[in-house]
Design goal:
This protein is α+β, with helices and mostly antiparallel strands. The chain has a single domain, classed as Nuclear Transport Factor 2, Chain: A, CATH 3.10.450.50. Helix content is 51%, strand content 21%. The chain has eight helices and four strands. Strands 1-2-3-4 form a four-stranded antiparallel sheet. β3 and β4 form a beta hairpin. The radius of gyration is 26 Å and the shape is globular. It starts with a helix and ends in a 7-residue tail after the last strand.
Length: 188
Amino acid sequence: MTSPIFILASKKKFFLRKLTTIILVLLITSPVFGFGKHTPDRILIKYLKSLYSNNLKETYSYISKADKNTISKNEFIKQNSLDDPFTQEIAKTVSSLRKYKVNETIINEDSATVNITVTSPDMSKVMGEIFGPFHGPKSMKNPQEATRYMLKQYLKKGNVPMVKERGTFTLVNEEGRWKVLLNLESKL
């Protein structure tokens, strides 16, 4: 006959094995379920995407308290806004073509430095390729509409000349959330 202590010990081992398996599964699958979405590099990419696509209310939410104390949301939007609907439309199209590569992230307690490479359409080359040979018919009724159409078609074709820009950004941890530090106070 099996002793009750042996049965209890065996159940405890089984429970510990199950618990260990569950913990391992959670650790392995945590990136899939979104843990780590708030790392400094991911916050920086969200900041840049919202800035480049002219979504300035969202962009403002990613900046540090120190910067928010220097500039109000309305002033930030006013200074960074693309007012012209055509320019806004092109900014969104160009933004959708951008690629982000994090080169290095260094985290020191409440601050982080992220070195990133952003690959974007080279708009000077794009404009040269589109409008260099373009003179357009003299009877063109709406040159802005023709320009908009040609530029959008060119950007959507997929074989756009690209340029890489590298930058290093500082982020600060504020109440458990990473924020981009622009140091706006020192730029006044």
